[in-house]
Amino acid sequence: MTLVTGGAGFIGSHVVDALLAEGHRVRAVDAFLPAAHRERPDYLDPAAEWVEGDLRDPDVAARAVAGVGAVCHQAAMVGLGVDLGDLPDYVGHNDLATAQLLRALAVAGFGGRLVLASSMVVYGEGRYTCPEHGVVAPAPRRPADLDAGRFEPRCPACGRSLESGTVPEDARLDPRSVYAATKLAQEHLCAVFGNETGVPVTALRYHNVYGPRMPRDTPYAGVASIFRSAFAAGRAPRVFEDGAQRRDFVHVRDVAHANLLALTAPEPVPGPLNVASGTPRTVLDMARALAVACDAPPEAAPVVTGEWRAGDVRHVVASPRRSAEALGFTAGEDFAAGMREFATAALRG
């Protein structure tokens, strides 16, 4: 029996489907919080055993882990949120819930493998190289620079322009938002649990995931969902900064496949792994591709606004080499086809 936490969510539900398709027995737990589910999803496969409850409740956590041989921990509150007023909710749903889950596993004598949904946000800014000082960690961007349209980070030692590269798993971690800090705390909690119990822990650091069942336009939704909602309403999506921010957009079915590999590989692959397509694109590239897929009229073409959000980073794209070598994972979904599917796919209410 494999436990999938957050099994009714965007990524978790695809993991449930992937496991069931391979003949695995699945138990899925989800709190069905109103912020994530305005209504109960109609895509929940009855072949799974569904447990409704909040993992912050020790009784729910104990019931969820009873008799399981593997755990895929997807449950989390996601997105940058609204403001620091969200801080207790992020810590509660992401870190306290993870702590209760790990305690329940310890009490149950769990001896399987644990796969954690982590995120590229733990890196903060991506990897940058200065022509004089080599690999450097840029300081957080200053509001005055952002207001003036100076979006690119500079070398903290000499102020030169930096070249952006791909981030390996051993890069310095530097979370820049409350959400990012709670995801890194999840990694640390699970690593401590693994060290104490001998349970192998794989932390999959997702990059920008898109696809069917994404939540609709909310402060907690991903940028692809926000743009898709704008097109559906006949509005031009607002692209922040100059649109040249580089990201890696990876399809949710590829992410589900990475989880399946991590759960079922002949030998566990402990440690962090980037889960990405390996093909960086700018946010404006994605917005334009989605506009084509949505057949948006000229008046709904993406608008570059120059606005910026605290907590956003400029460029973060991954090296997928370790996940390919250690896990055998390579993203297989075509981006243009994925955007066409996403343009009409049902989003989560």
Q: Helical segment tally?
A: 10
Whole-angstrom Rg:
20 Å
Span between termini = 29 Å
Class from helix and strand fractions: alpha/beta
Low-confidence stretches: none
Content of β-strand:
15-25%
Shape call: globular
Q: Summarize the biggest pleated sheet.
A: 7 strands, parallel
Give the total of beta strands: 17
Would you mind describing this structure in some detail?
With 349 residues, this protein is α/β, with parallel strands linked by helices. Helix content is 34%, strand content 18%. The chain has helices at 10-21, 58-65, 87-107, 143-147, 178-197, 223-232, 252-264, 283-293, 321-327, 335-344; strands at residues 2-5, 26-30, 49-52, 70-73, 113-119, 127-130, 134-136, 163-167, 201-206, 208-210, 238-239, 246-247, 249-251, 271-275, 281-282, 303-304, 317-318. The protein has a seven-stranded parallel sheet, sandwiched between helices. Strands 7-6-8-17 form a four-stranded mixed sheet, with no helix packed on it. A two-stranded parallel ribbon has the order 10-13. The mean pLDDT is 93.
